[in-house]
Amino acid sequence: MTEEFAIQFLTDAIYTTILIASPILLSALVVGFLIGVFQAVTSINEMTLTFIPKIIAVVIVLILMLNWMMNILLTFTINTFNLIPTLMK
């Protein structure tokens, strides 16, 4: 295994991780920001008001994006398994 191979493999793994995690994190960020603005405007400081909408948003995004996420992970896994014979040289 060369340095270039290891760097490329780790770069692909990190890119895949960011690609998979970004829709979930962005939805939680947007909902949290909107709830924060709502709380600042109305002076309501209820803790459950921040968590319940975030959980609902994350679940909805997971349901909508699961097929796409699984395709990305499947492609990465197949590419990783295809690289195994090249490591044996």
Descriptive account of the structure:
This protein has 89 residues and is mostly helical. It has one domain. The protein is 90% helix and 0% strand. It is built from 2 helices and no strands. Helix 1 packs antiparallel against helix 2. It is elongated, with a radius of gyration of 19 Å. The termini are close together. 3% of the residues are buried. The mean pLDDT is 92.
Determine the strand fraction and express it as a percent band. Answer: under 5%
Question: Compute the gyration radius: what is it?
Answer: 19 Å
Oligomer: single chain
Helix and strand succession?
HH
Structural class: mainly alpha
pLDDT < 50 stretches: none
- Count of structural domains: 1
Question: How many beta strands in the DSSP annotation?
Answer: 0
End-to-end Cα distance, whole Å, is 9 Å
Q: Tally the helices.
A: 2
Share of helical residues: over 70%
Task: Choose one word for the global shape.
Answer: elongated
Mean of residue pLDDT values: 92
Major sheet details = none
Provide a concise account of the structure shown.
Helix content is 90%, strand content 0%.
Give descriptors for this structure.
89 residues, mainly alpha, elongated
Outline the fold blueprint.
Layout: H1 3-42, H2 48-87
